[in-house]
RNA sequence: GCGGAUGUGGCGAAAUUGGCAGACGCGCUGGAUUUAGGUUCCAGUGAGUGAUCGUGCAGGUUCAAGUCCUGUCAUCCGCACCA
């Protein structure tokens, strides 16, 4: 058969669409399979080969499931709010709506050209008002339930994008979008109280099937630690200085305290501090630094002692000094620490520099050289002396603290509340009204969606004000509560909002009454398999689990966790082994590959190039190799005239069916394809196959190269669509060969092989090995010490 | 610094419970077809003339180690003064 991939691919893509081949049905009697991939941000530069790899994995699984009789939901959509579109719109003068529509149309066309079996009737667009209506609706539910609050704090601000960023978006001290340096700025910020769900997010990980490193990253991100809060009496004042520690048992070793430069104690006791000028100066210096500089740079400890205020160590009763230093953060714990220089390296460094006492309370190290952080016997600690187990000494101390009313057990998280607003136009408007008499008032549900006003000018205001603030007709409104004149909130939601619940909307995308019907949610949830990039496992994946768990607590979704299983694909690197980038000129456009080699080749190659979860460089010649494979498959019908089944090929078929079926389930597409290539080599060596065997072959290959396989199937008289035909099954008995070749070793070294019946006993195996002339010759004159036979594998004769 | 992962031919990579290292593909070499290039097909392809040696390096356990243990080096990723 001539492999005219262009004609074939167009033909079958049209046919699948015309016949609604991949539309998930509402037939609840069938077993369901919901496979989810991260929907793309429709950027102006079009699709990247990375998208193809990301979607090809579950594409193969989904296609296999359909052939196995499942009702499959494999949806796609567009996460289209966000800065790149807005920046592009500002640059070109086009409206973001127009830009977005154009980009979505382009992505859609590209995705269809690759032949993905998405259910195109359920496309979701986060910027569609019928979608963001429900994003706002969920936000209001959170507002109603006390999970939304506003606070004035120092925030990460990107001077270039003129936007406030979450900690997650400003990692490493630079803006996630434009990579400019982040500065700290005081702002009114909307927060979602995600910390309230910290324990639930952590505990929920126990019941889901995520890759171990994904779980670990989430655990690190949430960063739960247990310890104790202890209140230190400030001397001569009716004031307690509260600290958090994970090692309350080292309390007897506390020789000073450190508070963050922004700690309120300073303001409160300004009058009593005799060196307030020095303290203010230090504080100013710190304020100038970004959090990045404060935390990232390895440097000497700095700080200033509070003159005029001291604290009392509640264990030893001794008076101890208090310092301010930037190594203590206001944002973690209570912004104050008890310093135990003998057993904490940071405290040790600080104590050495400022000449503070170092008191050993755990034996085992040399505290004159460095802090000792290991375990050991407690000393200098009164009632704790003699304890050697960390757990016991900690719980004993907590008992004591509670008995004396100066402290209690406590839990802290690294995760902070989620800064949930941006001063930008292209996002979901936050549906809140500020009323001079009623305060913050929710926009009534029946008024949703609160639409983005259609305006010409959407450039950000000076000083980081939202573009919406300039639109009087949007801002001025009446209070939903009292009817008086009020002003709308002008900030919009961050880009992560829309993606936090999109997988629920796919289930019922055109519903006007609810974000999705309960009946459908019950059938389709949870997502059976979610695949995406490693870069999203701490942000999007945590945010969306949070939203989902919130909805679960309201009884609006049926299961406690949204995703039963989560995997991740590896990146595709440029041919030179580094990340693809425009500036390096190593970007591969998937459409070029489709045009030159065909979609089937592209799909096969991205899955064949290596382990699905690992990064791998692009190789054009390997693409050609995959094309060659498909061309040879296209020629298979010419030798499918065989009438008799050969035993050898039959066994090879059963082995391949098994291998491909099992490998797909483990995302081992590279070895699945290799197995089919190997089978093809065997077929060519034999020179003929039966028509049934041909049909089996193209059924196995169909999820990878569906256009070509459909074409062959039709040409051979197959009924209906191959994509909806039956997945082949294997007979375990036929995967086992009757005779096998085993290795023969002498003293662990390979010396030859013998062919024996597969069910030979150990004795027969050894006998057969000894009969082999080469082996016999080598054993000549040697004493046999030991004989080992492993059925199906080898014989090892230990001889001297 | 802490946590995690990885290290196998010229290249991408395979390799149940320890059991013939290098499947499959690329590349390369030789041959056939072709006016030629390309394509396609056939044969070969870890190193070494050889006995043998070979999975980052050094040890160890074992009849047997890519796989298990100890140490070490390198690379990548995540977190990062988290009290």
Question: What can you tell me about this protein's structure?
Answer:
The chain is α/β, with parallel strands linked by helices and 800 residues long. The protein has 25 helices and 28 strands. Strands 9, 10, 11, 12, 13, 14 and 15 form a seven-stranded mixed β-sheet that branches. Strands 2-1-21-22-8 form a five-stranded parallel β-sheet. Strands 6-5-7-16 form a four-stranded antiparallel β-sheet. Helix 2 (49-67) crosses helix 18, helix 17 (590-597) packs across helix 18 and helix 22 packs antiparallel against helix 23. The longest helix is centred in the first third of the chain and has 19 residues, at 49-67. The protein is globular, with a radius of gyration of 33 Å. The mean pLDDT is 89. The structure holds one RNA strand of 83 nucleotides.
Helical run tally: 25
Shape verdict: globular
| Helical residues, percent | 25-40%
Mean pLDDT: 89
Task: Kindly state the number of beta strands.
Answer: 28
Distance between the termini: 61 Å
Q: What is the strand content?
A: 15-25%
What structural class do you assign from the helix and strand content? alpha/beta
Biggest sheet descriptor: 7 strands, mixed
User: Uncertain segments of ≥5 residues (pLDDT<50)?
Assistant: none
Radius of gyration equals 33 Å
């Amino acid at each position: 058969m001539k492999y005219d991939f262009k004609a074939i691919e167009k033909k079958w893509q049209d046919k699948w669409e015309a016949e609604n081949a991949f539309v998930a049905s509402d037939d609840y009697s069938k077993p369901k399979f919901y496979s989810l991939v991260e929907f793309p941000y429709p950027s102006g530069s079009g699709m990247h080969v990375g998208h193809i790899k990301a979607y090809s994995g579950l594409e193969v699984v989904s296609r296999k499931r359909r052939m196995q009789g499942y009702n499959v939901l494999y949806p796609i959509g567009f996460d289209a709010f966000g800065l790149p579109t807005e920046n592009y719109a500002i640059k070109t003068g086009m409206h973001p709506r127009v830009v977005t529509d154009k980009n979505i149309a382009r992505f859609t066309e590209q995705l269809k050209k690759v032949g993905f079996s998405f259910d195109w009737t359920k496309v979701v667009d986060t910027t569609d008002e019928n979608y963001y209506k429900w994003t706002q609706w969920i936000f209001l539910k959170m507002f109603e339930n006390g999970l939304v609050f506003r606070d004035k704090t120092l925030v990460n601000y990107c001077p270039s994008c003129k936007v406030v960023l979450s900690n997650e978006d400003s990692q490493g001290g630079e803006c996630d979008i434009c990579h400019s340096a982040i500065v700290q700025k005081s702002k009114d910020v909307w927060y979602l109280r995600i910390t309230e769900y910290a324990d639930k997010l952590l505990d929920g990980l126990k019941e889901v099937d995520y890759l171990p490193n994904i779980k670990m990253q989430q655990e690190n991100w949430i960063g739960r630690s247990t310890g104790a809060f202890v209140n230190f009496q400030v001397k001569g004042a009716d004031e307690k200085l509260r600290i958090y520690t994970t090692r309350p048992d080292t309390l007897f070793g506390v020789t000073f305290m450190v508070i963050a430069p922004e700690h309120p104690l300073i303001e409160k006791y300004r009058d009593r501090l005799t060196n307030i000028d020095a303290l203010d100066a230090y504080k100013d210096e710190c304020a100038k630094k970004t959090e990045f500089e404060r935390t990232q740079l390895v440097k000497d400890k700095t700080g200033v002692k509070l003159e005029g205020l001291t604290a009392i160590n509640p264990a030893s009763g001794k008076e101890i000094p208090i310092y301010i230093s930037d190594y203590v953060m206001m944002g973690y714990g209570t912004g104050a620490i008890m310093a135990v220089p003998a057993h904490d390296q940071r405290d040790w460094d600080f104590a050495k520099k400022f000449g503070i006492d170092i008191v050993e309370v755990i034996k085992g190290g040399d505290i004159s050289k460095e802090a000792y952080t290991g375990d050991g016997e407690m000393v200098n600690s009164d009632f704790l002396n003699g304890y050697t187990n960390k757990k016991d000494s900690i719980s004993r101390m907590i008992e004591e603290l509670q008995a004396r009313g100066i402290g209690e057990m406590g839990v802290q998280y690294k995760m902070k509340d989620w800064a949930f607003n941006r001063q930008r136009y292209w996002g979901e408007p936050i549906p809140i009204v500020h009323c001079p008499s009623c305060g913050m008032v929710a926009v009534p549900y029946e008024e949703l969606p609160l639409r983005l006003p259609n305006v010409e000018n959407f450039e950000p205001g000076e000083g980081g004000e939202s573009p919406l603030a300039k639109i009087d007709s949007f801002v001025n409104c009446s209070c939903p509560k009292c009817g008086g004149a009020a002003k709308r909130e002008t900030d919009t939601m961050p880009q992560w909002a829309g993606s936090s619940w999109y997988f629920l909307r796919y289930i019922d995308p055109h519903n006007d009454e609810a974000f999705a019907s309960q009946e459908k949610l019950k059938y389709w949830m949870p997502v059976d398999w979610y695949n995406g990039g490693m870069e999203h496992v701490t942000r999007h994946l945590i945010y969306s689990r949070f939203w989902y768990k919130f909805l679960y607590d309201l009884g609006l979704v049926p299961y406690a966790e949204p995703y039963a299983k989560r995997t991740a694909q590896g990146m595709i690197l440029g041919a030179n082994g580094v990340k693809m980038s425009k500036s390096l000129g190593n970007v591969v456009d998937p459409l070029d590959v489709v045009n030159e080699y065909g979609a089937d080749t592209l799909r096969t190659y991205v899955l064949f190039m290596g382990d699905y979860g690992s990064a791998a460089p692009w190789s054009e010649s390997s693409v050609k190799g995959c094309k060659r494979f498909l061309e040879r498959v296209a020629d298979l019908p010419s030798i499918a005239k065989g009438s008799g089944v050969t035993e050898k090929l039959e066994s090879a078929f059963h082995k391949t069916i098994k291998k491909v079926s099992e490998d797909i389930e483990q995302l081992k597409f590279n070895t699945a394809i290799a197995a089919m290539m190997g089978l093809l080599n065997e077929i060519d060596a034999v020179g003929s196959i039966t028509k049934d065997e041909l049909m089996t072959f193209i059924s196995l290959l169909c999820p990878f190269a569906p256009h070509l396989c459909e074409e062959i199937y039709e040409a051979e008289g197959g009924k209906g669509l191959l994509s909806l035909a039956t997945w082949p099954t294997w007979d375990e008995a036929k995967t086992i060969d009757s005779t096998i070749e085993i290795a023969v070793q002498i003293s662990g070294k390979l010396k030859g092989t013998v062919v024996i019946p597969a069910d030979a006993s150990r004795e027969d195996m050894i006998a057969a090995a000894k009969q082999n002339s080469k082996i016999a010759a080598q054993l000549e004159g040697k004493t046999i010490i030991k004989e080992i036979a492993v059925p199906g594998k080898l014989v090892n004769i230990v001889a001297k």
